[in-house]
Amino acid sequence: MDRKRQLVMYLHGGSGNHGCEAIVNGTCRMTEGIPKLLVTNSEEEDRFYSLAPLCDILQENKIAEHFFAHVCYYVWRAVFHDPESFMRYRFRRVLGKKLQPLYVSVGGDMYCYDISKKEAILANRTFCKAGAKTVLWGCSIEPELLKEPEMVEDMKRYALITPRESITEKALRDAGIVENVKYFPDPAFFLQPEETELPEGFVADRTIGINVSPMIVRHEKVEGITVENYRRLIDHILKDTDNSVALIPHVMWKNNDDRLALKELYQGYEKNERVVLFPDMSCRKLKYVISKCRAFIGARTHATIAAYSSCVPTLVVGYSVKARGIARDLFGEEEHYVLPVQELEKEGQLIGAYGWIMDREEEIRKRLERMMPGYCARAGEAGEEIRKLWKKETERQ
User: Fold this and answer.
1) What mean pLDDT comes out for the span 103-108?
2) Is domain 7-183 given the CATH code 2.30.30 in the classification?
3) Residue 81 pLDDT
4) Could you give the CA distance from residue 279 to residue 310 in angstroms, rounded to a whole number?
5) Lowest mean pLDDT: which of 1-5, 12-16, 221-225, 251-255?
6) I need a labelling partner for 192 at 20 to 30 A (CA). Which of 69, 303, 338, 396 fits?
7) How far, CA to CA in Å, does 293 sit from each of 55, 109, 277?
8) What is the pLDDT of residue 1?
9) Rounded to whole angstroms, how far apart are CA atoms 211 and 125?
10) Domain extent listing, the chain
11) pLDDT the model gives residue 82
């Protein structure tokens, strides 16, 4: 790797999750002029979509794919009680003599879940022990987790934390984490759409965009209720309105692929010209498609961010603090704007929630049109905080 100084972005899962891609794309755009290196779980994905022109890309080391290294590091960790050893292997190409001035954790969801939380803590500890400054970027954190002393200690290691919604910001402040916290909207609000061809059957401003994910299906309390609610909604749109339906995937990872859920939903509508199943494409092209929808019903947070930032009335079918927090910041409340998947018990609930949005369609659109210019610009202002830290740390080294 080139020894030039670069801002390192890490804990990036790969652009097959177009939310991850959108975060990095938006971040690169708001920090133009700073040399950047993306350390990624999937170099192949990142080169395939939109990121290769924006930053250098480096494949992180995957210890599970190297048997002898795995055994050696496992024994070392067990004998010397050194949990960070795996992280030193994973990120060894940006540690030691190759240590860089600033490391930005772009995995905004890492502290939302117990398993990934441990990974994020270890990575932060590893870089800080090496002498680097770290940033927790565009994050959401479940407030309950901030009652854990280990979490509070870890948050205080970061030079900067930028929560993307007010629930997380308040939880951090309630936990006594104040000095290094600055609220900014998600970096994906700064993403620019890229025009792409729309298929037959997609009528601009007369099409309802729909996104569903395996993730929300896993959180449902009644087996099969999520897909059945979506199916009933599609039937309602086709029967009672002249709108079309666009099924839009946003994550394409092997074990978490929206296309599987959407293909199941598409069964029975294949010959209906008013129902379109979209193929995979970059986050910028997906944002363009979503921007042409009349309304959007989405499970993936960054699919809904594409809709919000395009002033498209949106209903989130969600389960997490990030969905609730963003909706609350935009509308003053999450009720009616977020339908928790855990609360789906009857087959017509999604139709009712969709109806509430459509009854207020113009009101919601006008509110978004008033808010979004400033809100998206505010997202971009986070780049100035990175510039300040970058200048400080490069002068220090």
Assistant:
1) 96
2) no
3) 54
4) 21
5) 1-5
6) 338
7) 31, 27, 14
8) 42
9) 36
10) 7-183, 207-373
11) 60
Share in percent of the chain as helix, strand, coil (round to 5): 50, 15, 35
* The domain made up of 207-373 is a member of CATH 3.40.50.1100: no
- Does 207-373 match 7-183 at the fold level? yes
The 10s digit of each residue's pLDDT in 170-224 is 999 999 999 999 999 999 999 999 999 999 889 999 999 999 999 899 889 999 9
Report the distance separating Cα 373 and Cα 396, nearest Å.
36
Residue 180's Cβ-side half-sphere holds a number of Cα atoms within 13 Å equal to: 20
CB under 8 Å to 382, separation ≥6 — which residues?
30, 137, 138, 162, 182, 184, 187
User: Distance (Å, rounded) from C-alpha 270 to C-alpha 287?
Assistant: 24
CA 133 from chain centre, in angstroms, equals 23
**Mean pLDDT of the chain, nearest integer:** 93
Cα–Cα separations (whole angstroms), residue 55 to 8, 38, 89, 284: 10, 7, 23, 16
Q: Please give the model's pTM, rounded to 2 decimal places.
A: 0.94
